[in-house]
Amino acid sequence: MKLLSNKIRLQDTVKTHVMRLKVIFVLIIILGVFISCKKETSVEKPILKDETEPTKEVVVKSVLTAKEQASMSSEEIINRLQEGNENFVNNNLTQRDHSEQRRIAAIGQYPKAIVLSCVDSRVPVEDVFDLGIGDIFVARVAGNIENKEIIGSMEFATVVAGSKVVIVLGHTACGAVKHAIDNTDAASLGLDALQDLLNEIRPVVKSKEGVIANSKDESFTNHIIHQNVKKTIADIREKSPKMKEMEQNDILKIVGAVYNMKTGEVEFL
Ligand SMILES: [Zn+2]
Question: Ligand 1 centroid to 140 CA: how many Å?
Fold first, then answer.
């Protein structure tokens, strides 16, 4: 009897332990669910916060209108380009909604300037002046020289489309100018077109204070880069009497500038 009684008591004790384990197990599951809910809540919080907070970034969605183009003087346009270049140097470019700008600009264009730049891949013209869709015309040719087609493009930009500034933009470390300085014989390599281009730059390669150097002389090369920009401007005035006349009547400004590859700064001449 006593043995049976002990067996029953043992069974009861085992049952009690099993029940306790079940309760602990259920409590662990409830605790686990609670913690995972809390975790989800804590992940969601910042997303909800971000959605409700207004963005502080100013995103430009508009493009230049005919009215805005007409209201700006040449001096104001140059000032804005200089301010834009400061933004570029400070890595503070304006945020733009290109999709919206593209949609609006499809109707027409009223750019404020035309920039003639070298083809160099390290001179991103629009970025250099913090500009976007519809802001400027850009013509590019190695060594930023002029030719009939480039001048025709400038006449279209200014006389027809209303731009009030022409900028001839040279840049430091220009390969085309360097080869012109070193008198590279491109023709001997069968590159007649490139030779013609270098011949356009060659006349400005003259001694500086009695010293003729090669392109390894950075100071001399920079001097020739400046001279080349000035020559292009003189050629534009000579070959386009209409633009020259507009400049004399203060309707247009033709200016030179040099982009510094290392600093990002544009020096207006
Ligand atoms: Zn170049």
Answer: 10
Q: What is the CA(258)–ligand 1 centre distance, in A? A: 11
Query: Considering its fold, how many domains does the chain have in total?
Result: 2
Domain membership of residue 1 as a residue range = 1-53
Ligand 1 centroid distance, CA of 30 (Å): 71
Please say whether the beta carbons of 172 and 258 come within 8 A. Answer: yes
User: Could you list the pLDDT tens digit for every one of the 269 residues in the chain?
Assistant: 454 555 556 566 556 565 665 656 555 555 444 444 344 444 444 444 444 455 547 899 999 988 888 889 999 999 999 999 999 999 999 999 898 898 889 888 989 999 999 999 999 999 999 999 999 999 999 999 999 999 999 999 999 999 999 999 999 999 999 999 999 999 999 999 999 999 999 999 987 777 778 999 999 999 999 999 999 999 999 999 999 999 999 999 999 999 999 999 999 99
E strands along 12-112, which residues?
A: 59-60, 95-96
- Residues 70 and 174 placed together within one structural domain of the fold: yes
Domain match, 43 and 134 both:
no
Task: Based on the fold, state whether residues 66 and 32 are members of the same structural domain.
Answer: no
What distance in angstroms lies between residue 193's CA and the mean position of ligand 1's atoms?
A: 16
**Would you give the end-to-end CA distance of the chain in angstroms?**
117
| Residue listed under structure tokens 């290392």 | 262
**Protein residues within 5 Å, CB atom, of ion ligand 1:** 118, 120, 174, 176
Q: How far is the CA of 174 from the centre of ligand 1 (A)?
A: 4
